[in-house]
Amino acid sequence: MIAKLLNIYESVRKMELNFETRVPFKPLYGVKNDRTLELYMHHARQESTKYFLLVTVGEESVRHDKVSDIEKTEDQNLSDSYIPELDSINEVPNVANSSNRKFGVDISYSVAWRGRECAYDNLRLGTPEQSYKLLPGYLHMLMATNPGGVLFTVVCHDANQQIFPLAFGVGDSENDASWSWFLGRVKSVFGVNPALVIVSDRHRSINNAVQEVFPQAFHGICMYHLLNNLKTKFRNKTKELEQHYIRTAKTYNLQDFHVLFYTLCSAVPGVKEYLEAVGLDRWTRSHAPSRRYNIMTTNISESLNVVLVKVRELPITAFVNEIRLLCQKWFHERRTKAAGCTTMMSKDVETKLEERKDRAQAMGVICADQYTFDVVDGDRNYCVDMALWTCTCRKFQLDQLPCDHVLAVVRKTLYQAYDLCSLYYTREFWHETYRGVISPIPHISSWTIPRQIFEFELQPSDVRTVAGRRRKRRLPSIGEELPTPKCSRCKERGHNRATCQNPIALHPADEAECLGSNLPTRQPTHPSNQQSMQQL
């Protein structure tokens, strides 16, 4: 197959010299027999004739004497054998660059975009209607090849502080019904945990769904989303907010919080009432009734969105398949990494413990009794109770990991640091997290699907397609205002350089010269202009 494609390509290159004009081609990328190929469908008009030549993948080249014959050429057989390589065709500039690099043909952005969309429709399981119809069968095969589990992409942290996908779902829009359905599916799989903590932005539908499905769970707010809300409301105090807010939200100790919160409120008048109305327990670590560990933001969720940004435009079945491939890759890589870990704790936790041990070397320890210790850290004292597993800095009990002061006690006593860590940080839990294998899905031609699933027709959501480019960035949360563009020409906000219509002020020296000579512009000094300017 490779040799045949190379022969076709060489023949096309030799014939190009005889072509008077060339019509833009559609680049197709695919995988055949586990080997990646680059396939091109190229049609061009021959010199002094009305014939078009169409080079396609097959046993031989096909000649047509009418353009309509080319338009009627069926390429559905290609979609059964070839799947596009997303990293290559997803970006429109890549299509245009490939056209110029391979054939020396320049095509516009709009032509490249339409070609890419056509490739998606023809090669990525068809239109949205066709993809939704295929989805029930795909999900059946997903469960058949992965017994005992379903693919999820709601995220949390694993023992090594990496993103772990828990659940995913597809809805028509962000509304109460979609979020309630989605969280209800999550609850049906994972059940109810009294220590459950959910962290999200301030979207009303998320808040309503959490109260309905998980009323007993603590619902925290992403501190960075709330910071963006504050920047929008207190525009003239952005610097002060960034300086004091993050420290106030992250501190563990209640006494430290009161000092930092007072400083914040003094620097930004009005912010006290705003943050208290939101709820101090929802955005601070010190007031949270449940352990948030180090999850103070939705960054892990945003990170997963960035990873999936290229596949979100695909039809539904192809989109689900790409998520499966991503998780299949992650599970294999992390299972291998966890299996090679030789320490008691995961690699990330071991690094944290070593850093804290180094800081603990400079601390003094005064023993009160068998379990109680006074630790001197600079100009402050902290009380460590080894019987209750507490420290007055509160890192020990909130993170379930020894803080600097506890490790200072360990250095002076017979306590072992590993015995004071939560089991969820251990190497065994890390490896057990990725013990399950996400198996591949066979080709559609070999699927065995029950009749009731095969005959079930799933229709796409009734959502109106908005004209223009599809939105790729996330929707802002409640109270959040996305930054407006800043013009690099006039330095004002609300537009860019291409649409700028503001007059540009002259440099003071140029302005003075123009005023002195009563000329609207600066006098040119080029020799060719000297005579004309003297006549003026």
Question: How does this model look, in words?
Answer:
- A hairpin with a 5-residue loop joins strand 3 (35-46) and strand 4 (52-55).
- The model is unreliable at 1-89 and 519-536 (pLDDT under 50).
- The protein has 536 residues and is an alpha+beta fold.
- Strands 1, 2, 3, 4 and 5 form a five-stranded antiparallel sheet that branches.
- It starts with a helix and ends with a helix.
- It contains 23 helices and 13 strands.
- Helix 8 (176-190) packs parallel to helix 9, helix 16 (316-339) packs antiparallel against helix 20 and helix 17 crosses helix 19.
- It has helices at residues 2-15, 67-71, 76-81, 86-89, 92-103, 109-123, 128-145, 176-190, 204-213, 223-233, 238-250, 254-267, 271-278, 280-283, 299-307, 316-339, 347-360, 395-399, 404-412, 427-433, 451-454, 508-517, 527-535; strands at residues 19-22, 26-32, 35-46, 52-55, 62-64, 155-157, 163-165, 197-200, 218-221, 364-367, 372-377, 380-385, 390-391.
- Helices cover 45% and strands 12% of the residues.
Brief sketch in words of this structure:
The protein is built from 23 helices and 13 strands. It is of the alpha+beta class. It is globular and about 80 Å long.
Topology:
Elements: H1 2-15, E1 19-22, E2 26-32, E3 35-46, E4 52-55, E5 62-64, H2 67-71, H3 76-81, H4 86-89, H5 92-103, H6 109-123, H7 128-145, E6 155-157, E7 163-165, H8 176-190, E8 197-200, H9 204-213, E9 218-221, H10 223-233, H11 238-250, H12 254-267, H13 271-278, H14 280-283, H15 299-307, H16 316-339, H17 347-360, E10 364-367, E11 372-377, E12 380-385, E13 390-391, H18 395-399, H19 404-412, H20 427-433, H21 451-454, H22 508-517, H23 527-535
Parallel strand pairs: 8-9
Antiparallel strand pairs: 1-3, 2-3, 3-4, 4-5, 6-7, 10-11, 11-12, 12-13
Helix pairs in contact: 5-6, 8-9, 10-11, 11-12, 16-20, 17-19
